[in-house]
Amino acid sequence: MENVVLVCTHKDFTCKLPDIYKPIVGGASLRKLNNDKDFLKDNAGDNISNKNPYYSELTALYWGYKHLDYQNLGLVHYRRYFKGQERAIVNGKKIKVLSNQQINDYLSHYDLIVPKKRHYVIETLYSHYCRTLRSEPMVALESVLKKNYPEYLDEFYNLKKRRSAHMFNMMIAKKEFLDRYLKFLFPILKDIESKIDSSSWNQYEKRYMGSVSELLLDIYLRKHNINSKEERVIEFIRFATLKKGIKYLKAKIFGKKYLNSDK
Q1: CA atoms within a 13 Å half-sphere pointing along the CA-CB vector of 142
Q2: What is the C-alpha to C-alpha distance for residues 25 and 69, in angstroms, rounded to an integer?
Q3: Strand 15-16 relative to strand 80-90, pairing
Q4: How many CB atoms lie under 10 A from the CB of residue 183?
Q5: How many CB atoms neighbour CB 194 within 10 A?
Q6: What tens digit of pLDDT does each residue of 172-220 get?
């Protein structure tokens, strides 16, 4: 198939999506959903499914990269999609997602499609991460880059100046780009994992690989001057912005780290 867009989920949900969209259970080796009969699973063959509590949706991306036949591969979430022109229904709600033709049109000019950047007004990307989440992964990332990827250090240090980034680990990318990027990403995450003992962290804190990889994407894109197309994201979380604002103020004023998701 020319285009495949994985729809990663760890929860039961219903959907009527274009054929190129393939629901996949992230962490399928650790959970069984009620309605996942027709869903792909990330625990067959070469996989990192058991790392899902740490890597989040990246376990689904890894599986798709290793096992599917495609020219362009994408990753979205059961509750987040790129906004487009083709009708779809998710949990009974009508939405419009990127069509097969739109993806082909965009990727005839760009290497990948990414979400529009999230902007932080008060903090830099680095300070926001360390204020709201545990800082150990950032320390480990710096150490790994210094030792094995020094050519990326300038972009890492730019995290202390920059205030916007492409988030969610969402993308739809050409095969050639994805092959290069994932060969960069996963070895770094493995090295970071070897440096951190997260056994005492709660379930949300243990998802640090997913958060680190969000920043690594832009480090890679900026270093190689990759040509990407930004697209709006549809998100199914009521009051998410308000919740995030309250959590951030608690972190800023009282030093309280994020301990749970907004799902």
Answers
A1: 10
A2: 18
A3: antiparallel
A4: 10
A5: 9
A6: 999 999 999 999 999 999 999 999 999 999 999 999 999 999 999 999 9
